[in-house]
Amino acid sequence: MTLQLGLVGLPNAGKSTLFNALTRAHSAVAPYPFTTIDPHVGVVAVPDPRLDALAKLIHPEKVTPTTLEVVDIAGLVKDAHKGEGLGNQFLGHIRNVDAIALVARCFRNDDVPHVAGELDPRDDLAVLELELALADLATLETQREKTRNAAKAGEKKFAAELELLDRAHAHLAAGQPARTLGLSDAEATLLRPLQLLTAKPLIFIANVGESDLPSGGALAARVASVAQRAKAESMIICAACEMDLADWSSEDAAQYRQEMGLEESSVERVIRAAYRLLDLITFFTATGGKELRAWTLTRGATALDAAGKVHTDMARGFIRAEVIDSATLLATGSLATAREKGLLRLEGREYVVQDGDLIHFRFSV
Ligand SMILES: Nc1nc2c(ncn2[C@@H]2O[C@H](COP(=O)(O)OP(=O)(O)O)[C@@H](O)[C@H]2O)c(=O)[nH]1
Ligand SMILES: [Mg+2]
């Protein structure tokens, strides 16, 4: 299961442009072929300098970065929650993603009409946030009805659930996202099946024109203030520029970025932000020295979880994990030396995997 970041925004915000830039950009790690699952889902390699450095040390035949999926969700419009246009279908797509990037139009282009005429990303973001909240309110109302009936039938556990649903409903009705409900683990588990849209981790993207790089200009500042209120990150991107850059050589692209005062590729920034949002870490495997591969894991996951990512057999027949963190390995210079020096630790199935660990699983089936 690959984690998905959904691009959500009003029509003409630049979602498809950003989607193309993200999925066409050449990975810094290894040439990763752009794969389309369908026209709206793309696979992007997660850039990781540690993977580059490990490849230089291990000389594998193949280097495989870990990936994220990006979903271009067709324009959300006002009244989508009522099923206007293809509203319900769009909301269903959003329900399935793990994190949301709200794309706000901040570029001026008289050839590209804006739905509301006057350009103000605060209005656009308010429409988006409202639609997501109204969809959640509808979900909560339906669930409340079901739970209320079950509670009437006398089952005690439903009374507690009903209370939680009432609390969530009041919170949303007061204009707050489900994200800020402050749930206990048990409560979060109860609400998770509802896949509330406003509970999903969120970043804001100000899609600016080239002339507003790198600072973003006045409209991007408005996006930043909306993001701050939502306690979320915001970033400035020129999607159209990034799409052009995807076709340039990496030297030319680097020179352009330097001239524009951009520190790194926006593609990398978006992917990194998604990683942070989802609280993900990366571990590496180097099977027989042939394939060096990066894998994504949720922070806090164990060696057994990691083994299961690689192969179900490895989890089933798990014996031990041989672990070295990549920084130590890189400083040592070679896997053989690290082994001689006893730097590879033997860890059991409960070991909590750390970001950057290189793991060799010992298993028998
Ligand atoms: N000037 C400028 N135009 C952009 C930018 N991003 C998108 N556009 C243009 O805006 C139009 C709509 O973009 P698109 O990505 O299709 O928007 P979507 O409806 O959100 O998918 C296209 O003509 C793009 O070329 C940008 O950063 N600057
Ligand atoms: Mg589009």
How would you briefly describe this protein structure?
This protein is an alpha/beta fold and 365 residues long. The protein has helices spanning 15-24, 49-58, 87-96, 121-152, 156-173, 185-191, 217-229, 239-245, 250-260, 266-277, 303-310, 312-316, 326-332, 335-340; strands at residues 4-8, 36-38, 41-45, 62-64, 67-72, 99-105, 202-207, 233-237, 280-287, 291-298, 318-325, 345-347, 357-363.
Share of helix, binned: 40-55%
The outline comes out as flat
Q: What percent strand?
A: 15-25%
Total number of strands:
13
Note the total helix count: 14
Order of helices and strands: EHEEHEEHEHHHEHEHHHEEHHEHHEE
Enumerate the strands of the largest sheet in spatial order, edge to edge or round the barrel: 2-3-5-1-6-7-8
Bound molecules: guanosine-5'-diphosphate, magnesium ion
In the predicted model, the low-confidence regions spanning at least 5 consecutive residues are 26-36
